[in-house]
Design goal:
By secondary structure, the chain is of the alpha+beta class. The chain folds into two domains: 37-43 and 183-284; 53-181, no CATH class. The chain is built from two helices and 22 strands. The longest helix has 28 residues, at 3-30. The protein is globular and about 60 Å long.
């Protein structure tokens, strides 16, 4: 066989094999299910700190009047802001305080409120230090010159007592929070002495509402999901216990995207082994 032709065949074989390997690697990287190993702010982690301290709240109220004039809330200097919009003949105003303090929101909290100065609006998702400012301090929502909602924010999370009013400023509802956690939430512990959290069920208006968490005994996350109006929604994820060395998905279960969806049956979307290798995926 001609030597040049032989060299050509070898080069083509090696090149083709390399291209095929590159393609496989590219496809693997583009497949979110190719590995159960994930990067997450929650993992590995310890359970959130729940601060339902009534005495601390009383002390904070004593300082409220002293600090209001200086826009200092919870020891942080803030700035005042507002948004305004007109819709269907009604005037909507929001008055709030915000901070430029660099602080990462608690990853366990579903709704983190922040001010987007470019769009002059308040948002609950997508916050980064570069895009906006966390709400921090008093908040009021006003419709046609009547206060319909008021409360306090703590680094983007609802804090203390929040009140809702009708269009005649008559109190309709009252809720209590501690740094984003509804105080109605049900919490169970592995050990009351060490306060190692086993499960957090978010409760609001006597229904499950918000992010759900279950923890392994070593406090690594075991299950995450979301409730809306007492119903499981979206993707619920189970994780292997890896002694807090890495986060590896075990199983994903798909629930209805919106509560009370008729004729929807939850199904297992994908499963992985303890090494993060995909062992099952439902074909849709």
């Amino acid at each position: 066989m001609n030597r040049r032709f032989l060299v050509f065949l070898i080069v083509m074989f090696v090149s083709g094999k390399f291209t095929f390997a590159q393609k496989n690697e590219s496809e693997k990287n583009s497949d979110p299910d190719s590995s159960g190993v994930v990067n997450s702010a929650l993992l590995p982690s310890v359970a959130p700190l729940l601060l339902f301290d009534e005495e601390e709240e009383k002390e904070e109220k004593k300082e409220k009047k002293k600090k209001a004039r200086k826009n200092i809330w919870f020891g942080i200097k803030t700035q005042r802001g507002f948004t305004r919009r007109e819709m269907r003949g009604q005037s909507y105003l929001e008055y709030f305080n915000y901070t430029d303090v660099d602080r990462n929101p608690d990853p366990y909290i579903r709704d983190v409120y922040w001010f987007d100065p470019k769009e002059r609006s308040i948002k609950t998702t997508g916050y980064t230090k570069e895009t906006g400012y966390l709400l921090h301090g008093p908040y009021e929502r006003v419709v046609n010159e009547e206060v319909v909602e008021s409360g306090m924010f703590y680094y983007g999370t609802k804090h203390r007592t929040w009140m809702l009013f009708d269009d005649k400023n008559v109190l309709q509802d009252k809720n209590h929070y501690s740094e984003g956690w509804p105080k109605e939430s049900r919490i169970t512990y592995y050990d009351q002495a060490s306060r190692g959290i086993e499960e957090i069920i978010p409760i609001q208006y006597s229904l499950e509402e918000g992010n759900y968490f279950y923890f392994h005994e070593d406090q690594q996350i075991a299950v995450t999901g979301e409730y809306k109006y007492g119903e499981k929604v979206g993707l619920w994820t189970e994780y292997w216990d890896t002694d807090n060395t890495k986060a590896i998905r075990k199983r994903e279960i798909q629930y209805q995207e919106a509560p009370y969806t008729k004729n929807f049956r939850p199904y297992i979307r994908a499963e992985w082994d303890k090494d993060g290798n995909l062992i099952y995926r439902k074909d849709l």
